[in-house]
Design the sequence.
């Protein structure tokens, strides 16, 4: 059900099911975060950086940057595909400054492609809205039906 009390269907149901899929991913036990599919082709992930993800020099390790950028871009792209799970086939990452602690937002946006291969960009923004990293991913439709994944739970009409 939507916040209005009306049943959710179509694209909205797909977006909520993708958010459920994200929450169900075991990797997110290590990276507490919240995904929001804002609209078709746009995804936002909110998370917090603290010393549990720091490298030896006291800033967030690159794995954190990659994971959040890849996820934001992936979900932006998969918001356009309601039948199949996408796979990341390539991801280019540019680090622009270190993140030490605080709230961070990964924003993903679909750029091009709708058939087999899709491209999406993402960027990491600190609590002040300053960019810390950006990336571009290429995603391909897999043979895995979204409906076959236990976390993909569509809202009931």
Sequence:
């Amino acid at each position: 059900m939507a916040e209005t009390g009306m049943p959710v269907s179509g694209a909205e149901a797909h977006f909520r099911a993708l958010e459920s899929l994200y929450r169900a991913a075991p990797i997110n036990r290590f990276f507490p975060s919240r995904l929001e599919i804002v609209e078709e082709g746009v995804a936002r992930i909110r998370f917090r950086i603290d010393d549990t993800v720091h490298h030896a020099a006291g800033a967030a390790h690159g794995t954190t940057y990659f994971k959040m950028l890849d996820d934001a871009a992936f979900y932006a792209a998969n918001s356009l595909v309601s039948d199949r799970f996408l796979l990341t086939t390539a991801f280019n990452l540019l680090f622009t400054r270190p993140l030490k602690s605080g709230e961070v937002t990964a924003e993903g946006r679909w750029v091009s492609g709708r058939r087999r291969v899709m491209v999406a960009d993402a960027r990491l923004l600190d609590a002040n809205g300053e960019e810390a990293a950006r990336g571009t991913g290429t995603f391909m439709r897999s043979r895995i039906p979204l409906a076959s994944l236990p976390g993909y739970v569509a809202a009931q009409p």
The chain has two helices and six strands. Residues 36 and 59 are 26 Å apart (CA to CA). The beta strands are 33-39, 42-49, 84-95, 102-112, 117-126, 131-145.
